Amino acid sequence: MSAPPAEGLVEQWESEQARLRQQVVEEDTEDWQRSPDFSGLERVGGVDLSFIKGDDVNACAQLVVLSYPDLEVMYEDSQMVTLMAPYIAGFLAFRETPFLLDALKRLEGNQPELLPQVVFVDGNGLFHYREFGLACHLGVLSGLPCVGVAKNLLQVQGVYKGEEHQSQIAALQKGGDSFPLTAASGKVLGKALRSSDKSSKPVYASVGHKISVDTAVRLTHSCCRYRVPEPIRQILSLHIPTEINSAFHSLRDSESDR
């Protein structure tokens, strides 16, 4: 069993999150975001870190870029990485962001014309303990608009998976319907979205960086053929090194605090 995290490291990471949190832009910054049909948006990205079952150190950092609105794969990148930072709930971004940034930098160096105009992150953005999840972390450090889309509800800041939440989910009648995830403070940290007519189970979308919550939700819906947005769903189809192909699973299925 691993030793508990050093208090000093937690304090250091909390301080760094607070510093970077001040740089998050929670509004639309791009012309395409203000267009009803996202005119001008041509490339959407998705990132994820996949882990070998039972191994939380060795992982595969993955990036895809899809055309928009056709949602066809234009670029894909998978690279094995070794995570050095310890796992601490609420601070997964410190383990994972460096490798996702590296993937974006490889693309920018090799094929800059394919750099995505927005990145979907399989995890949370502002909907987080300290309003600074993985999507915010990646957005601030990359400078790209980012959207966090989680498959599981993070019960945080007064948002709980209780009867009221379940009744709100039941009231989502069709793809595109949503309801706000409102913190105890009254601030809307994200929205639960029925992303497809075919799926009654919602996803949880929140601002990462350089996009408003309403635009983030609208864009998420426009990128969904099924429950999960295509830039994230397509990562599951990436070529993964054969030695671990059969053992991969996504940490996000069991951990929603990213």
TrEMBL record:
Localization terms from the record: Cytoplasm, Stress granule; Nucleus, Nucleolus
What's a BP term from Gene Ontology annotated to this protein? DNA repair
Q: Could you give one GO CC term from the UniProt record?
A: nucleolus
Where on the tree of life does the source sit, at the highest rank?
Eukaryota
Q: Which InterPro entries match?
A: Endonuclease-V
Instruction: List all membrane-crossing ranges.
Output: none
**Its biological purpose:** Endoribonuclease that specifically cleaves inosine-containing RNAs: cleaves RNA at the second phosphodiester bond 3' to inosine. Active against both single-stranded and double-stranded RNAs. Has strong preference for single-stranded RNAs (ssRNAs) toward double-stranded RNAs (dsRNAs). Cleaves mRNAs and tRNAs containing inosine. Also able to cleave structure-specific dsRNA substrates containing the specific sites 5'-IIUI-3' and 5'-UIUU-3'.
Q: What is the name of this protein?
A: Endonuclease V
Source organism of this protein record: Sparus aurata (Gilthead sea bream)
